[in-house]
Every structure is written in C-alpha cells, then in structure tokens.
C-alpha cells in the first residue's frame, strides 16, 4: 500500500516511524542477487536499525550480522542470525562484551588496536577459547563524505595504524588462543562516489599481498560497507546501485585462491523503507521566514542536526497547488532542531501530516527522550 494511502486511511499517532516491509524485501532481494553473482557474503550492520521486524526480515534472507556491542550480539542471536556469521566491531569493546563474544563462538572480532588485541588474547587464555581475529586496517582512503562519518583516514580513531601491524602479528604468533582469520576495512558511510571503493580495492590488494608474504594468509577479506543512498529519490529501489557496488570489487579486488569476501551493509539495505511521520503544530510567519513547527524533532531524527543530513520532506495531506517556502522545525529547545530550511511545500495547515522520507537507517535507532519526550509510535506496511 502506498505511504499516503496507508497514513490517510489509518489513525496515525505521531511522532511515528512507519516501515514499508514490501519495499524492504524488494531491496534485500536486489542486494542478495547482486552479491550472489560473485559469491560475496553480506552481513547486516545492526546499528543502522535494530527494530525487531526489520531484523526478522533481514535475517530471513540468510545474511550474517555486523555488531558493535555485546547487546547487539545478543539481539542478533535471539533474532536468528547464526553465531558463526557474526562480526564484532568497535573501538571500545568492554571486557564483558569480549567474554560474551568468546562464549558465543562468533565468526570474528574486528580488532581495532594492539591494546584491544592483547586484552582479547588474555581473556581467550583465561576462558580457554580460541578468538578468531580479523585485523581492521586503517587504509588511509578518503571516503569523500561528511567528516563525522569518515572512518578510513589516519586522523580517525578507527583501525590499526600501519606502524602497529608488526606488533599485532607478534602478539598473534605468541598466543595460541588467537587465530588470525582475516583483514577488515571500512572507510566511511553514505559514500556515493564509487571510485572510493576502487581506491579501497587497490589498498586491500597491497595489504593482502603484504600479509600473505609474511605467512599470514587471510581466509576472509571484509570490505565493510558505506554504500550511500539517494535521499532525493525516496521511492527508488537501488538495485542498480548494488550491481555497480559489487561490480567494482569484482573488477578491482585481487583475492587469493579460496578467500571469502564479506561486506557489512546497513544504510543501503534499510534506509529507503522507513519514514518519520509528524503533524504540523503551528505555522509561524515571519518577515523573512515561514516556520512550520512539527511535533517531531531532533529527538526523533537527529541526522539533520548531527551532520546536516538532507531528507526529502512531503506534505501527505496536500500534494498539489501553489507551493510555499518553509523552515521545517521541531519543538526541542535547540536552534539545531531543524529538518530543513527553505523547503518548498504545498500550503501547510495545522494538523497536516508531514513525512520525512528515507529515515529507515539511523532514525528510530538513534532517537532519544531528551526533554522527556514520549516514546515513538511504530507502524508497518505489510
């Protein structure tokens, strides 16, 4: 059912997230088909959206999971993801989380520092477990995206720096409970220039040869994720994007015999299926600005305030006629509580329902109750 029809035919309580499950399944089919062509493995980045219905749908396609906390590991397992298809990433894994991951027999730790590797090794000895290690290498590749979501430069906190790698290998050599299984790379998020991934492939090829020449042959090459979505085309299904994305790696990556290629996709799988719904509370006409004040704010969708993200905004009650220019703002006592400036929409009235589109990733999952906001309502188009 189309978003407008669903909203206008149902008594929607706002603020709310609404998820279009048929749209999600269509995107997952296209992603899986494009990856299967080359024998690639997809792991869903749970941090993008951990809604139970979303997880159930993604898991049904046989994808693995990319987790960045112990609770995400527990949620992945309880949602049906296979333990041996779970990567555990993150620069600040706690001792409790490391123990949980070891006892859960996950696929691999994506290790981000020498110190972390030492701690994992200590716990593996104590528990008499084998810790499967994928070293996250900081490849110094510019993702050409917002600096808050760039992760692959030397100035970023992520990954093991090149001068530490020999030390990391020595730690692995001297601890029988540490098993080197692969290399992990991730250069950033919301990447729309696919030449970034070509540049990543060239760096991965160099590191793959470097490790293999030293007797550490990776079983796994984990290339991370970062594929962007088109926030200006909320009704598009990005099948072509997946074909081009995986095609880049097929053309430029030079894996050794029997190496398995893994990806950690989040936003590109779930962003398009979700919208934030809000009602217009007030129209405030100024001398130079017209403000539409909504009942949703940065507490429901923080992306615009956090890194100036732009979402398509629609008036679901009025889609024809003369347009007016508005700043679309929320009720929170922060000047950054703004979804968009100088947005042209058909004339808004109190009670109109506004849809902020392409909000299925880093929307509900990053919401808060700052200002003691009431919990969100959640709806699904089946």
From TrEMBL:
Oxidoreductase recorded as keyword: no
One Pfam family this sequence matches: Orn_Arg_deC_N
Pathway annotation: Amino-acid biosynthesis; L-lysine biosynthesis via DAP pathway; L-lysine from DL-2,6-diaminopimelate: step 1/1
Listed cofactors: pyridoxal 5'-phosphate
InterPro entries according to UniProt: Ala_racemase/Decarboxylase_C (IPR009006), DAP_deCOOHase_LysA (IPR002986), De-COase2_C (IPR022643), De-COase2_N (IPR022644), De-COase2_pyr-phos_BS (IPR022653), Orn/DAP/Arg_de-COase (IPR000183), PLP-binding_barrel (IPR029066)
EC number(s) per entry: 4.1.1.20
Gene Ontology molecular-function annotations: diaminopimelate decarboxylase activity
One Gene Ontology biological process: lysine biosynthetic process via diaminopimelate
Enzyme class, spelled out: lyase
Domain Orn/DAP/Arg decarboxylase 2 C-terminal: 17-360
The entry's keywords: Amino-acid biosynthesis, Decarboxylase, Lyase, Lysine biosynthesis, Pyridoxal phosphate
Active-site annotation: 333 (proton donor)
Reaction(s) this enzyme catalyzes, per UniProt: meso-2,6-diaminopimelate + H(+) = L-lysine + CO2
Residues recorded with modification N6-(pyridoxal phosphate)lysine: 47
Domain Orn/DAP/Arg decarboxylase 2 N-terminal: from-to ranges: 26-271
PANTHER family, per database record: DIAMINOPIMELATE DECARBOXYLASE (PTHR43727), GROUP IV DECARBOXYLASE (PTHR43727:SF2)
Sequence similarity: Belongs to the Orn/Lys/Arg decarboxylase class-II family.
The protein, known as: Diaminopimelate decarboxylase
Biological source species: Avrilella dinanensis
Annotated gene: lysA
